[in-house]
Each structure stands twice: as structure tokens, then as C-alpha cells.
Amino acid sequence: MTLRVAILISGGGSNMVRLVDSMTGDHPARPVLVLSNRPDAGGLAKAAERGVPTAVVDHRAFTSRETFEAALSRALDGARPDILCLAGFMRILTPGFTRAWDGRMLNIHPSLLPKYKGLDTHRRAIDAGDRCAGCSVHLVTADLDGGPVLGQAEVPINPGDTAETLAARVLVEEHALYPSVLRRFAETRARPSAG
């Protein structure tokens, strides 16, 4: 059984590229759609170059989160994904949307959750005097960056680090962590249940 994966992006899609490129050979999942809320997202062209169908649902065309998410759901329905991966998707999703994808939606976050939910994670870790930062892949729930953590990678904070230098090193770990967690998650879901 091969699972179908849709990936939501808002920008350049570097994590999306790593996910798509990892889903080859004996991988239990395949990418079926890359969808962006921004028509100018650079990741759309990168997905198309890899032969993955793309779509845009521009959030600015909608008057509420609910109407935007209804259009998002219609676009996703056409691709029939089993798993939804957020990869730099910069929209907060409503509880109604997250409930519909309960247990099937993953996100990568640039901190060692539960520390530093939300934005500006690298600056916050440096300002707090932390010795290490990192990234987490978690299940998405209605609680922002609060779902169960499925995997983490640590990065030391060096003397003189800025938010930018730390972010660059964390991104390298994100590119390794997210594909490995997705593979493990998909293998578990694709396995026939006993009995």
C-alpha cells in the first residue's frame, strides 16, 4: 500500500524539496500535490520540475479563515492525500481543519518543542542563553505547535551566533529530520493492522 502525501508551502519550499526527493524507490509514500497559499511561492516551480502537481489557494482572496480552509479542503480532496505535510506553510489553521486531519498532518518547527512555539525561535533561544537549539517534527493539533513530537534534532548554539547563522545550521538538520520522520510515520500507517 502506497500512501499519498500532499505538502503545503508558503515560500521557497526547501523542506518540501527534501520530502519529495526522499519519496522514491521503496518509500511507502508518494507526493501527489504541492499546494501554496501564495501564488508567488518559489516552491511551486520546484515541485513542478519534479513532476508533482501543484495548486494555489490564495488566502488573500477570502474573507475568513473558514472560507479559505473550505477552498483548501476542496483542492486537497481532488488529490485524495492520506497524509498532509506542512513545510513552511505560514497560516494558522482553525480547530475545524486540524480536527479533519487529526493524526494525519505533520509539521516541522524550528525549535526543540515545547520550547519556543510560534515565530522568531532562533532569536528567542539565543536571548534565553540556551546552549542548544534545533527542530521538531510534530503532529498538528488545534494547539499551535503543541501536538505530539515525533522526532527532534539538536544544534549547538555557538558563541557569536546570530538568529541567521543559527537558522542556517538548524535548516540543515530540518532537511534530514523531516524526510526520516515522514518515512517512519508512513511505514507505520502503511503496515496492515493485525487481526
From TrEMBL:
Pfam families: Formyl_trans_N. The keyword Nuclease does not apply. Its EC number is 2.1.2.2. Residues 4-182 form the Formyl transferase N-terminal domain. SUPFAM superfamilies: Formyltransferase. Keywords: Purine biosynthesis, Transferase. One of its GO terms (molecular function) is phosphoribosylglycinamide formyltransferase activity. It comes from the Bacteria. This is Phosphoribosylglycinamide formyltransferase. It comes from Poseidonocella sedimentorum.
